[in-house]
Amino acid sequence: MSFTVVLVGRPNVGKSTLFNRLAGKKLALVDDTPGVTRDWRSAPGHVGGLSFTVVDTAGLEDVTDDSLEARMRRQTEQALQRADVALFLIDARAGVTPLDRHFAAILRKMKTPVLLVANKTEGKASKSGLYESFELGLGEPIPLSAEHGEGMADLVQALMPFAKEDTAAPTDEPVEEATGDRPIAIGDQPEPAEDLSKPIQIAIVGRPNVGKSTLLNSLLGEERVLTGPEAGMTRDAISVDWQWRDRRFKLVDTAGMRRRARVDEKVEKLAVADTLRVIRMANVVVLVVDAEAILDKQDLTIARMVIEEGRSLVIAINKWDIVDDRAMALRQVEDKLEAGLGYIKGVKVVTISALKGQKLDTLLDGILATYAVWNRRITTAQLNRWIGGVLDHHPPPLIEGRRVKIRYVTQVKTRPPTFALFVNKPLDLPESYQRYLIADMRNTFDLPGVPLRLLLRKGKNPYADE
CA–CA distance from 204 to each of 181, 201, 229, 237, 347 (Å)? Predict the structure, then answer.
């Protein structure tokens, strides 16, 4: 059974709390501040044997101009048009407000069926609001406490008529952990064929107002998320399934990340924490930077964070269409990458204009190329021929008159490529020599732009006696 349920109502009535309850995970940001949710987001919902897609929306405001609130309302109306049923939430403790009455009148005229939900009905203070809600003309209200999980059985009963038998399961799933890390025994293992049915998870990150949401909209070809001149517009991480050239992607737009010292609002702290979660779950992270302030200190901090998490990185320089001296700008990019990310050679850099849709195919080609490197496996025979040549030309330095013996190397996992180096004294191998080995391996096996990890192990070559 699968159908789409959209949650609507004025700000701060508990829509995101109910969304998290139905999704079974804390996916949406929740705070007492009105207007935390700005874009609609969806996830699989499961309750009482029903499976459906649940959609959280921004709070409805009575505005129709070009303000942020009006654009949020249009996003909500777009989600309503795609839904099978809408849950119109009111705050039973606050009672029915004029704004509730206004939007109830609008919802009654829409084709989408509407169920009235009186939220926050725990305690006696909600009784009067529950009775008042009958006047909205949307039928008998469903008393509910999204925060405490009370009244869910009544909600299931109300949703039952909308369940569709034998339909496909919802595909707009929340971001799943996608590290792909799997232990591999020493020696070569057959590389499993890539499952092309699984989407490549792409996180779009960067400072506020660099064009992350505009990039997502341009890729999708629709106004899926809010954009505008206001900085910090995106708060929740918005996940969207998408397909390009027979490859499936899960695109995740994230909140802008400012320097920690400048983040003082609680909601922004929650949004940044959500962005960090998305980075840890991504396959490829696209760092969007502003062509007018290319790779400033915060950009490089985000890039290093991505590398430390073991994710593959692609840098998209946005607003390239307004750059006058492009040659100078590219030299500036090279210099800053060398100074700030010199240990990760070959990071893919693509110049784009998200607003005009320029070079988006080039960006996607770069993403696929980087993803392929991040998944690459090198045979043990190749690695040990390589380490033999390295030791002939540049052996480890002497430690107290004795040389550390490197006996064997093998790849233990991918995503990112990780290698075990067997030496007689792991603690004595200098870090500078380890960095040299990683740099030489990157050049020899063509592994640009992804983190490489080298694990030192003590032990003899397990194949020495064969």
Answer: 22, 10, 18, 9, 16
pLDDT tens digit sequence for 202-256: 999 999 889 998 999 899 888 777 555 555 455 567 788 899 988 999 999 887 7
Helix (H, G, I), strand (E, B) or coil at 271: helix
Query: Residue 87 belongs to a domain with what CATH number?
Result: 3.40.50.300
Nearest to 213 by CA among 232, 193, 195, 200: 232
pTM for the whole structure:
0.68
Tokens encoding 452: 């490489």
Binding-site residues: 9-16, 56-60, 119-122, 206-213, 253-257, 318-321
Residues 334 and 392 in one domain: no
Give the helix ranges, DSSP H, for 309-379: 326-341, 360-374
What are the C-alpha distances in Å from 284 to residues 201, 287, 377?
6, 10, 17
Q: Indicate whether 175 belongs to any domain.
A: no
Across 55-59, average pLDDT: 78
Question: Tokens 């233990």 belong to which residue?
Answer: 412
Pairing outcome for strands 85-91 and 50-56: unpaired
Number of C-alpha atoms within 13 angstroms, CB side, residue 46?
A: 7
Cα separation, 17 vs 249, in Å, equals 28
Residue type, 275: T
Which range (232-241, 318-327, 369-378, 416-425) has the least confidence?
A: 232-241
Binding region for GTP: 9-16, 56-60, 119-122, 206-213, 253-257, 318-321
Positive or negative torsion for Cα 203, 207, 209, 211: negative
Range of the domain at 411: 380-458
Report how far apart, in Å, the C-alpha atoms of 143 and of each of 88, 96, 126 are: 12, 14, 9
pLDDT at 186: 41
- Over residues 328-340, the pLDDT tens digits come to 999 999 999 999 8
- Contact by Cβ (8 Å): 259, 289: no
Question: How many independent structural domains does the chain possess?
Answer: 3
